[in-house]
Amino acid sequence: MTVTIESTARTAPTSAMTGLLDEMANFTDVANRPDLGDRLARAWARVSDPILRIVVTGQSGQGMSALVDAIAGVPVTADGSQRGLPVMVTTSDTAYSRQSSSGSGMSRMEVGITPPLLAQGVVLIDTPGIYGADTAAAATVLELAAGADAVLFVSDASQEYTAPEIEFLAQLRQLCPTVLGVGTKIDLYARWTDIQDANRAHLDNAGLGIPLLPVSALLARTAHAEGDRELAVESGVPQLVDFVRGHVIAGADARQRGAIADEVFAAADQLMMTHQAELRALCDPANGGELVAELQRAVAASKRLRAQSARWQLVLGDGIVEVMAEVEHDLRHRLRQVVREAEADIMKLDPAKRWEQFELWLREKIARSVQASFVLANTRAGELADRVAQVFAADGVIMLPRLGIDEVGDALDSVASLEALETRKANLIQRLINALRGSYGGLLMVGVLTSVGGLALLNPWSIGAGVLLGGYTFYEDRKARLAARQAEAKTAVARLLDDVLFQMGDESRLRLREVHRTVRDHFAAIAEEMDESIEAALGAAQQAHHAHTAQRETRLAQLQATLARLGQLKARASALAS
Known about the structure:
Layout: E1 2-5, H1 11-30, H2 34-48, E2 52-58, H3 64-72, H4 94-100, E3 110-113, E4 122-126, H5 135-146, E5 150-156, H6 163-175, E6 179-184, H7 192-205, E7 212-214, H8 217-226, H9 229-235, H10 237-283, H11 288-306, H12 311-348, H13 355-392, H14 428-451, H15 460-545, H16 549-577
Parallel strand pairs: 1-3, 2-4, 2-5, 5-6, 6-7
Antiparallel strand pairs: 1-4
């Protein structure tokens, strides 16, 4: 369930950013630079949709939905309806549309409401709880966290964080810059402060600087119904809301303002380069030929930057191969460890007695390995983009592309189930028959030997031998059947892991190739823009070099005015970013 909390509280900064982009777009239109205009239009679209996404996750039964209700200020039912509130169902978010058909069983809906708390344009994504072998939900949460502005990890005050929860928090922290631990149900547990101290110690030992906030959704709901402010403060929900406002929303606004300022700076600098080249040619006609030659050399260098042999292209090509190899090796290593653990577990006990439970355990182990591989791929993709950006432009700031390795939640759907064991445990009658066969052989063999000495076929010696060999046959049959089941179980595990490695290796390569294309196209577009700007500067300088004296004065005034206005726009962008 996705609860959308809307407000006009962020209208002022949004208007400032869109206004700045509109003014910059006017300059690109006059300069006939549709490439720069398209880039500004994409930035304008991002600004006009200032929704922040906060993922709410945790183990099942920890009070996540109650927490979402408390933050929203009103209860929201499963179908998103609430009497007296406007309901708006939207499918405009492609990430949600993909997830709804991913096969993970997670259906979500955006519901537009106007609550008294957190009216800041925030989307709270209430995900299904995670427990046991429900690893599809965990994988989906990681996918959502990679594109979220913040994650609220919910755990009630009944017990401290477990090792799997700490591991999951570490993965979330790698994917999302802001992760907050929320301790719920503090009204039910008097020693919740001890639990919070223990959780803080666990996080410190794991090197995770994650804030912890205690809350009570029940107290918040009661305070909302009775209008009791003191009880509301005691619930801890207002403090949580203030944290989100002060850190998540403010931080996202600052990052967005900085990104918009970078877009304005990039467009303004490219236009100013053209105008300054023309201005130099007009101010110093005698050196116009030298300026034209200088710009021609710059055009040649720019074309080399766009070529396949450009250094940034080589760094990207080599880097993506290295990332693919590292991710595949990491997944192989993790799955090999899973195989070792599975085989050791199979050899301890009879697998036929607990095959279904074993499959759940094995799938959980596999899913954890896949999740870790997903986190590693995202991390290495971001590092590669940074390296390419540094090589692409050692001077100045280059906007990085938005990377995402999406839809890991359904990555294991195509993997077959663990094969059923054909070598079943023999029933008592079958085992008794086998034992009788062994005892009959012993009875007959010893009876024949003793009959040579004058004893009857059935004598104490032959009967004893029959009992002994019957018991031995009974034991060996049981041992052989157990060994056969264990061998069959190992084979089934090996086949399943081989299928997982094949499917996930292919999925990983596909997603990393998409990252490769995204980074390549991003920097290729920037290189093309730079090439266009330099060629425009060359054309303007050539035209200015041959301009008549009467035209120079008029054009000089126009260029100086345009450069001054562009400088003012850059100053406004700088002020907006700060």
